[in-house]
Each structure stands twice: as C-alpha cells, then as structure tokens.
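Notes from the 1:1 (GR / supervisor)

We went over the backlog. Supervisor wanted to see one worked example end to end before approving the batch request, so GR pasted a single chain during the call. The sequence is below; no edits were made to it. Supervisor asked that the structure be written out right there so they could see what the output format looks like.
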Amino acid sequence: GRSERVVGEALRQLPASRRPLLFSKFGLGDDSANRRKSGAAGDVVRECEASLARLGVGRIDLFQLHWPAPEPIAETARACAGLLAAGKIRAIGVCNVSVAQCQEWTATGTPLHSVQNPYSILRQQAADELLPWCFDHGTSFLAYSPLFRGLLHGTWKADKSFPPGDTRAEHKDYQGRRFQRHLAAIEELRAIASADELSVAQLCVGALTCTPGLTGCIIGARNAAQGTAIGELGMPITARQLAAVEDIVARLEADLAAMPT
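Structure output shown during the call:
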C-alpha cells in the first residue's frame, strides 16, 4: 500500500485539472511480505476501500484483478460489478489471463473493460489469441513489460548483473548463450534504430504500437533517467522499420529454439 500513499500525497498537490487517471490492482492483499491470491467478494471490496483511503479519492478509474484467483471468476466479477454500480470504480480490468478466462468473465454479464498481459517483440504469445479476442470484443489491451523487463532499453552489456532478490537473475533468457544471443539481436536493432535517429526502446515500442487491438504500453522506470525517457517512447515507425524488426526477431527465435533449455 505504500505506493498508493505516495501517489495520494502527490495527487493532493495537483490541481483538479491535472489529475491523472488512477489505475490500481487487487487480489494479492495489502501485505507485500505475505502475498495471498484472493478474488473473494469480501476481499475485493475491502481492497478497493483500502485503496480509495490510501489514495484519498472517491473513485478509481481502472480496478484490475492482478492474477487469476482460486475463487470462482463469477464471484469476483459480481463484486466488481457492485463497486462499479456504487461509483467506486469507473472500469474493470484483469491481468495475466487467457481467452478462456476472459470468456468466463464476460459470461457473467459483468463488463470487462481491459486486459493487461505481458507483450513485447520478444514475447508475442498474446498476439496469437488474446489480442484478437480483445479487438473483437471491444476490450482494451494493455501491454506490460514491453521492454522485456529492461533488456530492450538497449543499455545492457555482457557483464550485466542484478541486485539481490531480483528475479531476472534466474530467468533463462538473461543467462549464458541465450543472453548473448539476445544482446546480439539488440545490436541489430540498434543499427536499424540509429539509422533513423531512434533509440532501441523507441523502435521496439513503436513496433508494438503497430499491433491491431493494442491500446497502450505500461513501461516501468527504475531511476529518474528512465522515467524521463518514457515520455519519448511514443514514436511511430515505418513499414520498412517494422519489417526489419520482425526479421531480427524471427531469426532470434529460430536460434533460441535450437538451444537447449
């Protein structure tokens, strides 16, 4: 809940005309040291009320289920519908879901306004079924980790290390031959980007925004410099640049598929 308190303090210093849209999540509880997935109706309502109090607002613009929970989707959906009817939230979203889970949600009659799943030029599974489903059903799709957890910023070197507790250190794509092959692909992307005075990140995010049905990208920042750079990422790219990116990614995927896992 600390991040919401920080955001709430920032909101109190802004005039109403500059108030941003507020997105929050539920389903993991308030204790970051003791995460517990829950979509139980009582927990959904309690988490919403707690978020409203921490933020110091009367309504959350988008309230999202963080991960699928053990409880029936219908129970979670009904609780969200109640919050929507009460005016405590403006829209409902789910994260890390499949098409089948989206279908189960919409079968309850509760609106599903957005889906947030991982999606980047290096992780395109969502484009197979989920993005088309969202496009066909008028559901917004928000891509998270569009820079593949930092790799596509284009700043990592072969000696990249991660701080203690950072789960990226255990990811197979950030180790050994797979990591080296990714770095080689980054250099190919850099050549395409720099030819048109773009950064690697601008090229990669630009390629994503060409995807039908994509509403937006959620890009995190770990320092002030990255935070400043986020505002420069919404650059359109050409068909020629997109084709070059797709070729680089296709060759990368073929090489990775041939490597032992």
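Supervisor's comment: The chain has a mean pLDDT of 94.
Batch request approved.
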